[in-house]
Amino acid sequence: MTTMPTTYSDLFYGISPYSWAYTGVGLALGTSIVGAAWGIFITGASLLGASVKAPRIRSKNLISVIFCEAVAIYGVIIAIILQGKISESHFAPGSAEYAKNAFSAYSIFWSGISVGLSNLVCGICVGITGSGCALSDAQTPETFVKILVIEIFGSALGLFGVIVAIIQSGDASFIKN
Amino acid sequence: MSSVEMEICPPSASFFGYMGVTCAIAFSNIGAAYGTAKSGVGIASMGVMNPGMVMRNIIPVVMAGVLGIYGLIVAVIISATIPAPISGVARYSLHAGFAHLAAGLSCGLSGLAAGMAIGIVGDTGVRAVGQQEKVYVGVVLILIFAEALGLYGLIVALILAQTKNDCGQD
C-alpha cells in the first residue's frame, strides 16, 4: 500500500501557531533592542572621545543617543501590542479555529520580524550618523544642526517599520474559547 | 497511481504573503539605512571644511529615505490584499501568497541594492563636492541612476501585487 507523499502544508500543520506568534513577539523586542544598543555604543564612543578636546559638545550630542533609544521604545510598544493579540485556545489542525489562529500567528511572526529588522538597521544608521555628527561638531560647531537633519531622516526608517507592523497585524487575533 | 492533491487555499498561504510584506519593508530599510549612514558620514566629514555646502549635499540622504518609502508603499499594498479567513474558511490562495512574496522580494532587494549604491556614491560624491563645486551635477546624475534601480523594483512589485486571489468555489 503506497503512502501519500507529504506536502509542505503538512509541515506547517505540525508547527504550533503559538511558536510562530511568540517567536515574532520575542524577535520584535530583541532585535529592536540590539539595534538601539548598537547605535548607542557607536555614537557614545565617538561622542566621549571627541569631548576630550571639545567638552562643549557633550550635552548637545546626547540627542543622538536619545534618537537611538527611541528605536528601543518602538520595539517595546509593538511587542506589547502583538502579545495582546495572542490568547490561549484549544483547537486541532484542520478545524475551523485553526485557520484563523494560523493566519494570526503568521501575521504576528512576520510583523515582529518587520519591526525588528527595521529598528535594527535604523539604530545602526542613527548611531553611525550621530558619531559623525559629534566628530564634526567638535571641529565646526555650525554643522551640528545640519547633520542632525540626516539623523532625523534615519530615524524615520524605524517609524516605517512600526507602521508596517501595525498594518500587517491589524487582522490578527487568536480565537478565545 | 495516487497523486498528491494540492490544496488551493491552505492556511499556510498567508505565511508567504506576510513574508513578502516583511521582505519589502525590511530589505528596503536596510538599503535606506546604509545609504543614509554612509553618505551621512561623508557629509559630516566634508562639513568640517566646507560647512556652507552641507545642506545642498543632503540629497543622497533624501534619496535613500525615498527607498524606505517605496518599501512602505509595497508593504502596505500587499498587506491590504491578504484577507483573513472567515469562520474557518480560508480565502487566500497559495498562488496569491507566492506572488506577494515575489513582490516583496523584488521591491526589497532592489531597494537594498539601490541603497548601497546611493550610499557609496553619496559618500564619495559629497566629499568631492566639498572640494570642487562643479562636480555637483555629476553626482546628482549618478544618484538618479542609482535611485532608478529601486524604482524598477517598485514597479515590478506593484504589478505582481495585483495578482488575483481566487479560491475557487469552496
Description:
The complex is a heterodimer of chains A (177) and B (170). Helices cover 77% and strands 0% of the residues of chain A. The relative contact order of chain A is 0.20. Chain A contains 6 helices and no strands. Chain B is mainly alpha-helical and 170 residues long. Chain B has 4 helices and no strands. Chain B has helices spanning 13-49, 59-80, 94-131, 136-160. The model of chain B has no long low-confidence stretch (mean pLDDT 93). Chains A and B meet through helix 1, helix 5 and helix 6 of A and helix 1 and helix 2 of B.
SSE inventory with pairings:
The complex is a heterodimer of chains A (177) and B (170).
Chain A lengths: L7 H7 L2 H34 L6 H4 L1 H22 L12 H44 L4 H25 L9
Chain B lengths: L12 H37 L9 H22 L13 H38 L4 H25 L10
Helix pairs in contact in B: 1-2, 1-3, 2-3, 2-4, 3-4
**What is the end-to-end distance of chain B?**
26 Å
Global mean pLDDT of chain B = 93
Secondary-structure element series of chain A: HHHHHH
State the helicity of chain B in percent bands.
Answer: over 70%
Rounded to an integer in angstroms, the radius of gyration calculated over CA atoms of chain B is 21 Å
What are the segments of chain A in which pLDDT stays under 50 over at least 5 consecutive residues?
none
Q: Biggest interface and which pair forms it? A: A-B, 57 and 55 residues
Count every helix of chain B, treating DSSP H or I runs of 4 or more residues as helices.
Answer: 4
Coarse shape of chain B: elongated
- The amount of helix of chain A comes to over 70%
Kindly report how far apart the N and C termini of chain A lie.
Answer: 40 Å
Could you give a short account of the major beta sheet of chain A?
none
- DSSP, total strands of chain B: 0
Quickly count the helices of chain A.
6
Shape of chain A: elongated
Oligomer: heterodimer
Number of strands of chain A: 0
N to C succession of SSEs of chain B: HHHH
Helix/strand class of chain B: mainly alpha
The assigned structural class of chain A equals mainly alpha
